[in-house]
Amino acid sequence: MHPMLRAAAGLAAALLSLAATAFDLQGHRGARGLAPENTLPAFERALAIGVSTLELDIGVTADGVVVVSHDPALSPAFVRDASGKWLPARGPLLKDLSLRELQQYDVGRIDPANPYARTFATQQPVDGARIPTLAQVFDLVRTRGARHVRFNIETKLSPQQPQDTVSAEAMTDALLQVVRDAGMRERVSIQSFDWRTLQRVQQREPGIPTVYLSIQTANTDNTKDGTWTAGLRLADHGSMPRMVKAAGGKVWAPNQGALTQALVREAQALGLQVIPWTVNNPADMDRIVGWGVDGLITDYPDRLREVLGKRGIPLPPQVP
């Protein structure tokens, strides 16, 4: 077979496999349980395991570069300075560092003295890993030929701590420009707990799906007073699915503890997809998959593949 025909056949097979995979297997921060979070090695690991979507977080540097990072400031849990020393406390804000300055820090290993190391004891270090730009992540996936892989990109900012990041408008606009420049409009969704950014995405790029994140626990709830939810309040809508639908969302992404099978059915009846986070225990995975959710976000995509395989659910292609 001619190489071009072989490549086309391979792409067609991958796309058919993806089409058959109704389930969206999302690697959280790449594969945080297995490799340093939100780094190129983590995304490479997720691709090799086989995911349909890379879930990741973004911030914006002092020189306006969109980078992949969960925290608005450098974390002492896994950041070392140019001399190799662990940060003793919360480090500089991303918005106060240029990309060049940011690249001086190593994020390839968890500090063994930090409690975070016990939480992710199976994470394999990759010394020398740096915080990548979003453009680099797009380039990685493009270079690997993983045309079936999507990106679920979370804007990381807080309406209660606006001083820690660029504004919601600036972050959203910078993100959308990188997506446009990379030709990735059709392959991204954008999610956030801060629904202001999602409203702006819907205004600026209505073709990009928006994913409405919610957390409802005894200690934290972003749904009550409208601060996080662009003025919407749960009490005014009666349920989270109805609230997300009213906001114009395509996907509801609740914390797993707040989800019930009845809510899954209600959301899907409204035309929403339901993709809870962050599900790491195989028993929980199996139970929630059994409810008929549209996908799961997990730190351990290898575990989720095993659960899905046992249920006979088609799996996304692996990308070595």
Automatic annotation (TrEMBL):
Q: Does the keyword Signal apply?
A: yes
Recorded coiled-coil stretches: none
Q: Does the keyword Phosphoprotein apply?
A: no
Q: Which InterPro entries match?
A: GP_PDE_dom, PLC-like_Pdiesterase_TIM-brl
Which GO terms fall under biological process for this protein? lipid metabolic process
Keyword annotations for this protein, in alphabetical order, are: Signal
UniProt domain GP-PDE: residue ranges? 23-308
Q: Which residues form the signal peptide?
A: 1-22
Q: Which domain of life is it from?
A: Bacteria
- Report the GO molecular function annotations: phosphoric diester hydrolase activity
Q: Name one Pfam family in it.
A: GDPD
PANTHER family linked to this entry:
GLYCEROPHOSPHODIESTER PHOSPHODIESTERASE, GLYCEROPHOSPHORYL DIESTER PHOSPHODIESTERASE
Q: What protein am I looking at?
A: Glycerophosphodiester phosphodiesterase
